[in-house]
């Protein structure tokens, strides 16, 4: 019996090629979208969950409680030492200074140099007791000895080719390090990867910048975002007890100031998602994508149901004949179920082929920083099987039930148009268009917000500014390079600094103004020389620029207003002490006020900011170009750079490129919604095309009669599309308030954002209407221009 069901189902699918194409295309696109969302969500939910102790591993983080809470993903070495030696609930504790950048020299007959950006970490063997890596050669204990380094397999091959790297030497900052271990390349779903691990006991020799009084070892307040501490507790439920002991110890360490600090533990499972610290994606995004995927698959199912039910008159004789010949309602029900199942299987196969073909494109365009990988076939089979069950139930059950209940008399008289499907079909069509129009509005607003973030004035000049990493440089090297570059015709100004404005990495601390109490709010630090103000175009409102070699400060207007409001005095010429500069407790003088500028991204409000010199911390050179002969100027810049800094490797990046990367998360969201909206539009258009075709077929004789009575092509097209247009307008009325609420809520997450305007909804509604009219127009015109004689011949 099943063989007969399958044979008839295949015959119906082949005979109705046009509608089969519409159904399979819509379902395949929807399934493809769902599989991509599944891959993306599965990747994010699997990050660092494969480690042996992941369920009881926690990150040591820090919170600073001032006028507003500040969250730092880093911890101090002193905190790590306390928790390791004094807290009994801790099984393993590890500390790592991560993502450092160095020039690596490989000695030999042909000495090679490599610039390693954010690839070097300092740690010991306990790091690899917490995090599971594949040790190819050596063991973690090698990192407990000074002078040792462990390389990833990829890095070892990069340096030494096919030679055995064990025992070979690499040189970082003139310090030789012996390769004592090789680990397998880190899996793609981890946030704790590095390519080079240097023993922590080698820190002060390899990077003297950390050797400022060695207070890094003892100061609980010496925090950095790259100072990373993890602990494995004996039981996950011990988290509260450990935090209580940290709370007691910080009271002893900070005394009356302890209220400003707290040291919570962040579960490893939340490390990837908590954007207050280092989380790169919010769980809400995964949930939103899941909802979007379900809505898109629902739209495709609605298309199928609408078209199957709308074909009921075309299949009426078939249903009636089978019933006359003894076919039961259950047999007819099963026939439609098998037909829906076969269509779904074809759509699933096509969707899987689309996923395999489009994965490289998606990785290049959407997920270039964290490329998706095709999961194991067993996991994919589970996902596909679940989708298949949903599709079969969704596409088969309702139409099969509805059509199997048709009576013999109704079927043979072709009188099935009055079945209770009209209202249901309209409700499904409205739902489908509400989703589509809502996605169009969301896409438009997100695109405009991302454009706004990338192009809004951030208070400084980002155009034609090139940044070049320099590493640690001496004062004479800085002076020589600055003077040489200023002589070039294509260069307007030069500045040595720690980092550029609007960077994803910045420093800050509390300040004390004119011998008053320490302020209860933090300031952000723009650490740069006297050329910083000119290079980045910071606009002076009052006073003058800082001078080279002087302990002076520029502050932004927000900070000046806050100090003036609190202390009722002007700021120019007054003393300021800013914690975190290498000059320690020496007070400087405020010499100027500049227009507000953004130290980080415009997602957050512009903070009180300080600009001051601190040559020990400079890691970057910023060069303002004139904009003429840019490439020739950069080539000459490179030549001069390598003459003054022969041990460095030259690389550069424009500031506007760095700023674009600040909004990577928003850009990915924009692209994801954009793709989802595009797929929804295509599926809805296919559905409308199918429906207008079926309506035209069902009303063929009516169209013929109207044409004979003088109806024009336009009038007939209007008649065919009138009801659908009304439903689209109703959908617009429902989608507008829903999308306004959702996008208003989303925009509140940005300190600076666009205002939602009425015309955004107008554009979305008009776009949906035009797309619908184009989808329906061809079939409507074709039906309206058909020869009425042919349509009426049977009468």
Automatic annotation (TrEMBL):
Which Gene Ontology molecular function entries are recorded, alphabetically? transmembrane transporter activity
Coiled coil spans: none
Annotated membrane topology is: Multi-pass membrane protein
Keyword terms: Cell membrane, Membrane, Transmembrane, Transmembrane helix
The principal localisation class reads membrane
Bilayer-spanning residue ranges? 21-40, 285-305, 332-359, 379-403, 427-452, 672-697, 724-744, 756-774
Q: Where is the MacB-like periplasmic core domain?
A: 20-247, 441-639
Q: Report one GO cellular component.
A: plasma membrane
> Where in or outside the cell?
Cell membrane
Q: Name the domain of life.
A: Bacteria
Tell me the ranges covered by the ABC3 transporter permease C-terminal domain, including all copies: 291-406, 675-788
Q: This protein is called what?
A: ABC transporter permease
This protein's species is Mucilaginibacter myungsuensis
The organism's taxonomy opens as: Bacteria, Pseudomonadati, Bacteroidota, Sphingobacteriia, Sphingobacteriales
């Amino acid at each position: 019996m099943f063989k007969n069901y399958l044979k008839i189902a295949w015959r119906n699918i082949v005979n109705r090629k046009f509608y089969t194409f519409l159904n399979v295309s819509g379902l395949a696109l929807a399934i493809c979208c769902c599989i991509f969302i599944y891959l993306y969500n599965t990747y994010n939910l699997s990050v660092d969950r494969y480690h042996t102790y992941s369920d009881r591993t926690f990150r040591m983080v820090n919170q600073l409680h001032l006028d507003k809470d500040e969250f730092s993903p880093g911890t101090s070495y002193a905190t790590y030492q306390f928790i390791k030696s004094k807290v009994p609930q801790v099984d393993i504790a590890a500390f790592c200074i991560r993502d450092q950048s160095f020039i690596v020299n490989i000695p030999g007959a042909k000495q090679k140099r490599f610039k390693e950006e954010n690839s070097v970490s300092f740690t010991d063997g306990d790091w690899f007791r917490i995090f599971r890596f594949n040790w190819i050669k050596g063991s973690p204990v090698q990192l407990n000895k000074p002078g040792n380094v462990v390389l990833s397999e990829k890095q070892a091959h990069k340096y030494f080719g096919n030679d055995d790297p064990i025992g070979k030497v690499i040189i970082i900052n003139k310090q030789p390090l012996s390769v004592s271990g090789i680990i397998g390349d880190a899996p793609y779903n981890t946030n704790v990867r590095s390519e080079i691990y240097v023993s922590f006991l080698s820190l002060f020799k390899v990077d003297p910048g950390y050797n400022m009084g060695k207070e890094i070892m003892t100061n609980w307040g010496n925090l950095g975002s790259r100072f990373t501490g993890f602990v494995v507790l004996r039981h996950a439920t011990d988290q509260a007890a450990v935090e209580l002991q940290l709370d007691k110890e910080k009271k002893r360490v900070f005394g009356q100031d302890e209220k400003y600090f707290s040291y919570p533990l962040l579960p490893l499972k939340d490390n990837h998602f908590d954007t207050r610290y280092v989380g790169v994606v919010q769980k809400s995004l995964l949930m939103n994508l899941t909802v979007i995927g379900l809505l898109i698959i629902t739209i495709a199912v609605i298309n199928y149901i609408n078209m199957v039910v709308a074909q009921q008159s075309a299949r009426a004789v078939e249903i009636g004949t089978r019933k006359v010949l003894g076919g039961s309602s259950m047999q007819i029900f099963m026939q439609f179920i098998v037909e829906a199942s076969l269509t779904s299987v074809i759509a699933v196969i096509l969707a899987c082929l689309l996923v395999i073909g489009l994965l490289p494109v998606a990785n290049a365009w959407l997920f270039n920083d964290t490329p998706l990988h095709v999961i194991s076939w067993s996991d994919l089979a589970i996902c596909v099987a679940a989708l298949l069950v949903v599709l079969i139930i969704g596409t088969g059950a309702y139409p099969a039930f509805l059509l199997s209940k048709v009576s013999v008399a109704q079927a043979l008289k072709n009188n099935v148009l009055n079945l209770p499907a009209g209202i249901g079909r309209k409700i499904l069509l409205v739902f489908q268009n509400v989703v589509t129009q809502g996605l169009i509005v969301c896409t438009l607003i997100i695109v405009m917000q991302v454009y706004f973030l990338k192009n809004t004035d951030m208070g400084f000049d980002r155009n034609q500014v090139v940044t070049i990493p320099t590493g640690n440089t001496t004062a004479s090297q800085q002076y020589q390079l600055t003077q040489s570059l200023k002589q070039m015709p294509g260069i307007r100004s030069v500045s040595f600094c720690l980092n550029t404005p609007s960077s994803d990495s910045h420093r800050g601390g509390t300040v004390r103004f004119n011998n008053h109490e320490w302020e209860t709010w933090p300031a952000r630090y723009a650490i740069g020389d006297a050329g910083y103000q000119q290079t980045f175009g910071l606009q002076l409102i009052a006073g003058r620029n800082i001078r080279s070699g002087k302990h002076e400060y520029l502050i932004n207007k927000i900070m000046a207003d806050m100090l003036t409001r609190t202390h009722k005095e002007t700021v120019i010429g007054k003393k300021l002490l800013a914690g975190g500069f290498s000059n320690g407790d020496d007070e400087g003088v405020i010499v100027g006020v500049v227009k507000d500028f953004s130290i980080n991204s415009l997602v957050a409000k512009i903070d009180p900011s300080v600009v001051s010199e601190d040559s020990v911390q400079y890691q970057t050179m910023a060069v303002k170009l004139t904009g003429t002969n840019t490439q020739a100027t950069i080539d000459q810049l490179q030549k001069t750079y390598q003459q003054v800094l022969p041990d460095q490797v030259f690389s550069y990046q424009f500031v506007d490129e760095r700023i674009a990367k600040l909004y990577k998360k928003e850009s990915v969201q924009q692209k994801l919604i954009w793709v989802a909206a595009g797929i929804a539009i295509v599926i809805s258009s296919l559905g409308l095309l199918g429906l207008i075709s079926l309506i035209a077929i069902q009303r063929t004789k009516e169209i013929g009669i109207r044409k004979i009575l003088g109806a024009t092509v336009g009038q007939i097209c209007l008649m065919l599309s009138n009801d659908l247009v009304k439903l689209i307008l109703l959908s617009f009325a429902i989608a507008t308030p829903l999308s306004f609420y959702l996008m208003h809520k989303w925009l509140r997450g940005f300190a600076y954002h666009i205002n939602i305007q009425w015309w955004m909804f107008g554009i979305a509604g008009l776009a949906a209407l035009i797309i619908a009219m184009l989808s329906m127009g061809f079939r409507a015109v074709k039906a309206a221009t058909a020869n009425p004689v042919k349509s009426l011949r049977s009468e």
